[in-house]
């Protein structure tokens, strides 16, 4: 899935980053 492909808002980026980290730790 494409990530960091389109410019997003700081809040959106933070949420995506948090989700990515959570998914990584859960993996």
What would you say this structure looks like, in words?
- With 27 residues, the chain is mainly alpha-helical.
- It has one helix spanning 10-26.
Gyration radius over CA = 10 Å
Instruction: Count every beta strand, where a strand is a DSSP E run of 2 or more residues.
Output: 0
Q: Which residues form runs of ≥5 with pLDDT under 50?
A: none
SSE pattern? H
Shape: flat
**In percent, how much strand structure appears in the residues?**
under 5%
Largest sheet data:
none
Helical percentage:
55-70%
Q: What is the distance, rounded to the nearest whole angstrom, between the alpha carbons of the first and last residues? A: 17 Å
What's the topology here?
Elements: H1 10-26
Summarize the structure.
The protein is mainly α and 27 residues long. It contains one helix and no strands. The two termini are 17 Å apart.
Keywords:
27 residues, mainly alpha, flat
